[in-house]
TrEMBL record:
Keywords: Manganese, Metal-binding, NAD, Oxidoreductase
SUPFAM superfamilies with a match to the protein in the record: Isocitrate/Isopropylmalate dehydrogenase-like (SSF53659)
Catalytic activity field: (R)-malate + NAD(+) = pyruvate + CO2 + NADH
Enzyme class: oxidoreductase
Protein name per the record: D-malate dehydrogenase (decarboxylating)
Species assigned in the record: Castellaniella daejeonensis
Cofactor(s) named in the record: Mn(2+); Mg(2+)
SMART domains: Iso_dh
Length: 365
């Protein structure tokens, strides 16, 4: 019953800095897609971020969860104003809190070499690099379990535990296998480090082996994180879907945009695949105070994140997937032929690039 005409309610949080400059372009392109493909998108905007913090003493209101918990998705810009609000408050009390409270246990980052974007890797062309990183987003190495003993003495020692649960590991592995099963390559690579991390990583490998049994149609392999990083630089064309724990996924998902060009174009999704809570879509870049207020930020990371949102909202309904594809084609066309913002060597402004992408979407066939 989930057709094109079901209204999807989007909570829009532009945030700070260039977040407020790239978000209007994301919305412009979504509106073009909604008109062209007959999608019913209902946007509601929330001015949460460092401005809110400076006025009210918190990044989001106390009832933030009720305010956006019933929406179908969250489109997020970026938060941070390092000269006025400490980064740990800006980030933790907004985006990290939303990810945790809405159990967005998958962080999905596509890495695709786009036309017109030079890669630092020699001899790589568009199409050579096209893979997805699935990062576990809630547990693993990023726990706050641990502490410091005998501080300030010669006997001082420090412990921080990693926590891997059967539920947490299995659900992210299943998500990754499902994703791989639906792609033409049907291949999954897992990051591990069971030769050095001798308790948790062998467990991760064991669950990988077990879950792989449920997906005989997916070919899979695994690499230690160190050699995997080397392979990604030397043979990025070999990868399709990569699944990794919180820490290893963090490392990989910063390596990818480095291999595929400017940080200004990289998108991400924080998913609660069961849809018990809204999922969140945001560009990989931050609020970029160094260029904020000048209207020159690259809007593609935000627009591509909006395309990921359409894919997610549409489930398997083809018109939503068509809309998402049209946005991606439009991004590719504009990256290839311009206009381009200064980070890509052009002279265009944020809105020029957004308008050009929206007009390609409006004419999509
Ligand atoms: P965070 O702390 O969240 O990483 P940040 O503002 O410190 O945020 P980024 O936003 O990731 O760091 O920016 C890193 C560099 O990349 C900055 O020099 C910034 O100007 C540039 N940059 C980031 N996003 C864009 C964009 N959309 N267009 C052009 N340049 C960008
Ligand atoms: Mg930064």
């Amino acid at each position: 019953t989930h057709g094109a005409h079901m209204t999807q309610r989007i909570a829009v949080i532009p945030g700070d800095g260039i977040g407020t400059e790239v978000m209007p372009e994301g919305l412009r392109v979504l509106e073009a897609a909604a008109t062209r493909f007959g999608l019913d998108l209902d946007f509601e905007s929330f001015d949460w971020g460092c401005g809110h913090y400076l006025r009210e003493g918190r990044m989001m209101p106390a009832d933030w969860k009720e305010r956006i918990g019933g929406h179908d998705a969250i489109l997020f810009g970026a938060v941070g104003a390092p000269d006025r609000v400490p980064d740990h408050i800006a980030i933790w009390d907004s985006i990290i809190t939303i990810r945790r409270e809405f159990d967005q246990y998958v962080n999905l980052r596509p890495a695709r070499l786009m036309p017109g974007v030079p890669s630092p890797l020699a001899n790589r062309r568009p199409g050579d690099i096209d893979f997805l990183v699935v990062r576990e987003n809630t547990e693993g190495e990023y726990s706050s379990l641990g502490g410091r003993m005998f501080p300030g003495t010669e006997r001082e020692f420090v412990i921080q535990e990693s926590v891997f649960t059967r539920t947490g590991v299995d659900r992210v592995l299943r998500f990754a296998f499902e994703l791989a099963a639906r792609r033409p390559g049907r291949h999954l690579t897992a990051a591990t480090k069971s030769n050095g991390i001798s308790i948790t990583m062998p467990y991760w490998d064991e669950r990988l082996q077990a879950i792989a049994g449920e997906y005989p149609e997916v070919a899979w392999d695994k690499f230690h994180i160190d050699i995997l990083c080397a392979h990604l630089v030397q043979h990025p064309d070999r990868f399709d879907v990569i699944v990794a724990s919180n820490l290893f996924g963090d490392i990989l998902s910063d390596l990818d945009p480095a291999c595929t060009g400017t940080i200004g174009i990289a998108p991400s999704a924080n998913l609660n695949p069961e849809r018990r809570y809204p999922s969140l879509f945001e560009p990989v870049h931050g609020s970029a105070p160094d260029i904020a207020g000048r209207g020159i930020a690259n809007p593609v990371g935000q627009i591509w994140s909006a395309a990921l949102m359409l894919q997610h909202l549409g489930r398997d309904v083809s018109v939503w997937q068509d809309a998402a594809d049209a946005v991606l084609r439009a991004i590719e066309a504009v990256l290839a032929e311009g206009p381009r913002t200064p980070d890509m060597g052009g002279t265009a402004r944020t809105a020029d690039m957004g308008r050009a992408i929206a007009s390609h979407v409006a004419q999509a066939r």
